[in-house]
Write a structure and sequence with these properties.
globular; 23% strand; Creatine Amidinohydrolase; alpha+beta; five-stranded antiparallel sheet; single chain
Amino acid sequence: MVEIKTDMALEAMREAGRVVANALAAARAAAAVGTRLRELDAAARAVLDDAGARSPFLGYRPSFAPTPFPGVICASVNDAVAHGIPDDYRLRDGDLVSVDCGAELDGWTGDAAISFTVGTPRPADLELIAATQRALDAGIAAATVGHRVGDISHAIDAVAREAACGMPSDFGGHGIGRHMHEDPHVPNRGRPGRGFPLRHGLALAIEPMLMAGGRDKYRTDVDGWTLRTTDGSRAAHIEHTIAVTEEGPRVLTLP
């Protein structure tokens, strides 16, 4: 069931979103050549703890997962598309890192992701990150009252196709509010004018995941969580929680 949020609820989600933004900023600031992924997790965890927020990632176990998720962030490196476990991997010069984080504060949730490079960037990685950001921006711009979920999906897909990038077709965005994952599902590919109608008070997490190799296929690591490109190409993942309002889309996961 889709829950339409009140303006008061959206303000509460904005506070949760602010915590997410600060946690992502802390994780990014901690990222350097030689830093372990679990150190990025610790930096984000400290922000959540200081804010009195709970992580909806820690201990999360959807039906496909063999074990509960062990971190407060997903840390996906290079050919990892999403859901990477923050472990003892040490970042190397030129790595492309995607960090996804959520926070629950006073019963409301925010969810966002960033992608960045460590050390000396590869030009192709910067182009991939830029294309992923354009896809997110296009999706957010389409999230207006009177449109439908398919308009968001189509806008993201158009940017991905123009950039000749693939996307994992069965993963995408989602409704969000009292829980991290709510209805409706927001695919990253779709037809305009189709899907759930966008109304004032609808809160969505929009999250394009672009794969540089151009293929949509991915594989799951032996850890049961990490999604990787099948051709070894790099991937980027950028996400914001937004609210559909009469004044236009409002991003809730900014600092």
